Amino acid sequence: MTTQSTKTRSQGEFTYTPEDGRLLEVEDLYVEFHTADGVATAINGVSFELNQGESLAILGESGSGKSVTAQAIMGILDMPPAVIPQGHIRYCGQDLLTMDPEQRRKTRGPEVSMIFQDALSALNPVFPVGWQIAEMFRTHRGMNKSDALEQAVRLMERVQIPGARDRVKAYPHQFSGGMRQRIMIAVAIALDPAVLIADEPTTALDVTVQAQIMALLEELQEERQMGLILITHDLGVVADVADRIAVMYAGRLVEKAEVTDLYANPAHPYTRGLLESIPRLDQKGQTLAAIGGLPPNLMRIPPGCPFNPRCRMAQDVCRTDLPPLREVAPGRLSACHFAEEVIDA
Amino acid sequence: MTEATVAETTAPSDPHDTSDEGEVRSLASDAWRAMRHNPLFWVSAAMILVFVLMAAFPSLFTRTDPNFAVLAESRSKPGEGTWFGRDLQGYDIYARCIYGARASILVGLFTTTGTVLVGGTIGIIAGYMGGWVDSLLSRIGDVFFAIPLLLGAIIFLVSLPEFFNNNYLLVVLKVVVALVVLGWPSLARLMRSSVIQVKPNDYVQAARALGASPLRVIGSHILPNALAPMIVVATINLGAYIAAEATLSFLGIGLQAPAISWGIDISSAIVGLRTTPHMLFFPSLFLSLAVLAFIMLGDAVRDALDPKNR
Amino acid sequence: MPEVVLSAQNLVKHYPIKKGVLRRTVGHVKAVDGVTFDLHKGETLGIVGESGCGKSTLGRLLMRLEEPTSGSVAFEGQDFSGASARDTRRLRRNIQIVFQDPYTSLNPRMTVGDIVGEPFEIHSDVVPKGGRRQRVQELLDLVGLNPEHINRYPHQFSGGQRQRIGIARGIALNPKVLICDEPVSALDVSVQAQVINLMEKLQDELGLAYVFIAHDLSVVRHISDRVGVMYLGRLAEIGEEDEIYSRPTHPYTQALLSAVPVPDPTLRGKREQIVLEGDVPSPANPPSGCRFHTRCWKAQDVCTTDEPDLQPRPDGAGEHQSACHFAEPRAIVETKDVSNLQHDARFATTKVEELSEAGDTPVPDDRSTPARAEAMDPTAEQPQDTTRVVEDPTDRPR
Predict the structure, then answer these.
(1) Which CATH architecture does the domain made up of C4-224 adopt?
(2) Segments forming the whole domain that contains residue A79
(3) ipTM of predicted assembly, 2 dp
(4) Which of A58, A103, C37, C303 sits in a 20 to 30 Å window from C358, CA-based?
C-alpha cells in the first residue's frame, strides 16, 4: 500500500496526522458484556491495523465479535453492560480509549465515521434527509442553514441520488432501501472522515442494489483515500472489495491475509471450511460440504482453540493450548497449530 | 412486542442443568423467574396477602365488632382505649378499617375477573376475525369507552331497581357490574392489538397450514402468546377499581351503610376534617395502601413480562 | 419426465388498497399477477426474485394460506379451489411449508415434542395416539436432532436447530410437496450448508418435491432442478437450472446474475456488471406492457405496449420459457462443472450424519477429555442467546 498524500487533520486544538499512512491501530482489545447470566467475552484480544486508502474486511458469523469491534472503535458501545478491560485503539497514534470523552466525541464524524446495516432505523424518521445531512455541517463546521443545505444537496448528488435538489426536503420513508443507504453514506462521509466503518452495509438490500452500493463505497474510498473497514459475513462481497481480510471466530482473529491469498489458500480450518460450505453461482453440480456444530456460547468458550469442537483436524493440543496468531507465510497470519498443513492442503 | 421476543431475551438455561426436561415456558413460569428477584414484587405480594386475609378472615385481626357503637366515646382519639380511636357514631375505627377491606377486595377481584373475561373475549374475537366484526366490536367498545367512568357509574347505579340493595353481595355485585360495563373496552382494545401482533407469526401460519381449527389456533398458539399485556394491565386496574369502589361509596351510590367500606367511612369522616382528622386518616391510609399494593404488583408483573422494560 | 404433483394455473393475488373513513378501495397491490408452472414429483423448483416480487405471496397461495384472487392450484390434478373441507384437509397433508425465520416459526410456549407432534393431533388418524411420541422422536432423529430433546423448548436451540425442528414439523405428515420460503436465509453461513444438505438428504429419502423460494441465487442454483425468476408478480423466465444460469435470455435474469458477488477475488473487475437504472416500480401500479421495460436497456416501443408472453424462446442451445420480446442468450457467469470435485474431508464434510454428531448433539466419546466434554455440553450451545447480547447490545435488557 503506497500512501502519496499524508493528510493532516485538525480538530480544534488537536491534530491528527497518520504516521506512515497508518490510520488506525487496534491492539490486544478485549470487550466483555456483563449480564445477569454471567460474563460474555465478545472480543478476546484482537489486534489489527488500517492504513490510508486501504480496505480491510472483517469477516465473521453472528457472535464472532465483528460488529462489537466496529462499535468499540466508534465508541458507541453501551457501557454498561459492555466493559473494555484492556486494549488500545489508536487513531493516528492517539489512544481513543484514554481520550477524554468530549475530545473523542469530536472525532466521530470528521475522523471516524460509520454506516449501519439498517438505514431506516439509523436515520431519524421525523426530519427531512437533507436536514439530517446539513446538521453535520452545522454542528461540526458551524455553517449557516442555507450553506449547509447547499452542501447537503451536493453530497446527495455525489452519492447519486436522482433529483437530489428536489428531494432534499423528503423524509427517510419516502426513499427506497437502496436510496436510504445512499443517504446514510452521505451522512457518514459528510465531514470527510479518514476512516469509514461499514457494518453489513448491503445485507438488508436486494442483490442488484447491493452491487450499486458496494460500487459507490469503493469509488468514494478511492476518491477520498479513506481507510475502509467492511464488516460482513458475505464471502462474495469481500472478494469483490477488500484488500485484506481478517477472519473472526468467537471473539478472536483466526486468520489475516491479503484477499487473493486467503481465497486461494486459506490458512485456518475455519476459513477453509467456510469456503467449502458456500454454494457458488459459478459452479454447478457441486456437493456442499459443511462445518458441523455451532459457534460456541461466548459465556463458555471452550479451552484451547475456540474452534476445536467443530474442527475435523483437532488434536489433543488444540483442546488444551490456545494457538497464537502467528505469521505462517509472508504477510499471512493464522491462529492454528497446524496452519502449515492447512495452507498446503 | 410479541412473546417470541420474550423467549429470545430470556436467560439461557442453567449450564449445570443436565436433565432433558426444558424449563417450562408457560406465562406464569416466565413471570416467576423474573419476579422472584424483584423486591417490589415481594413487598406488594406481602401487602396483598395481608389485605386478602383481612377480607377473608377479619376476625384474625380484631375481636371488636365494627358495628358495636360506644356513643359515649364518639370521636375519641387514637390511644384513648382503642388503637385508631372512634368515629362519629362511636365505632372502633381500627375494626372498621379491617372489615372495610372485604368490600374493596371483592369489588376489585370481581371487576377485574369480569373485565378480563368480557374484554378479553371480545378482544380476541375482534383481533382474530378482523374485517367487519372487528369494526363493529371496536365501535361498540369506543361508545362505552367514551363514557366517563364515574359519571357512567353514577347513572347506572342510581337507575338500578331497589332490589339490588337487599343484601351485601347484591350491593357489591351492582358496583361490580357497573364497573365491568364501563371498564371492559380498555382490555378489549389491548387484547385485540396483541392478538393482531401475534396472529401473523409464522407459528400461527404453520398451524393453519396444518389444517388446525380456529379454536385450536387461538387456544394453543395465539392466546398463550398474547395474554401477557392484559395480565399486566388487569393487575394495575385492580387497584384502580378498588379506588373506584371507594369513590362511589364516598358519593353514597356504591355501598351504603350498614355495609362497611373505606369509602363510606371516609365520607362520614369529612364532618370532622379539622377537629378529628384521624377519622379520615386511617381509612384513607388503608385505601391508599391497598391501591398501591396492586399497582406495585402490576409494575412488577410488567417488568417480568415486558421485554422492553428488562 | 415424472408426473406433475402441483400445478399453478394463472395464479393472481391482488390486495386492495383502502383509503379514507369509508375504507373505499382505491387500487390494488398486484402481488402475484398471473403465474403458471408445474412441479414434478421429487424435483426442486427454485423461485428467485428481489423483495416485493411476490415470491413469498406465491408460496402462501400454493400453501392455501391465502385465497387467490383468480387462478387455481391443483394437487395431482385435483383443483384446490372448489375442495370441500375434508378434501382440503387431505390436501394439507400433502403440501406443507417451512418458514424463513426460525425464531418466529416455532411457538415459544410449546415443547419440541408438542410442535412436531401437533400435525398428528390435528390429523389424528395418521398415527395412533400411543405411537405419536415415538414417531416424533423418529422425526427428530431424521432431521439430525437428539430425540432425547423432545421436552425442550425452542429457545434452548440455535437458529439452525430450530430450522430443523420446523422441517421436522413440515415432513411429519409425509407430504409430497414442501414449500420452503427462504429456509436458510436467516441462518449463519456455516450453518446454511448443514440445513441445505439435510434438505437434499430428505428429498432423496422421502421423494419430496420442493418449491424453494429464495433471494440468494447461489443457493437456488445449488439446490434446484428448475428455476423460475420473478419480477413484479410475474415469471420473467423459467427453465432448467443450467438454462437459467448458463444461458439466460431475459434481461432481468441477466442483470440479476451479473450483480451476484462471486467469492473469488481473481475475478474482480473481470466480470461484466449490468447496472439497472432506478428502483423496482410499485406493484400497485406496475408499468404497462413488459413490466421490466422501465429499467431495461433493450426496451423498444413495443415493450411499453405489448406484454410479452412467457413462452419457449431460443437460448442458443435449445429453448426455454422467457417473457421478453427480444430474448437472446447472454453468458453472464462462467460456469464450472465441479461435480467430480472431492472435498477435503479434514475441513468440512458432505455427510449429513457426521455433521449432526459434530456438535449439534452431544455424543458420548471415550476419548473425550473433560474440556471437550464441556465444549460439547448441549446446554452450552445456545448461540442465539449470547449472540443477541453481543451483536445487538442496544437491545440489552436494562
Answers:
(1) 3-Layer(aba) Sandwich (3.40)
(2) 9-111+193-280+287-344
(3) 0.83
(4) A58
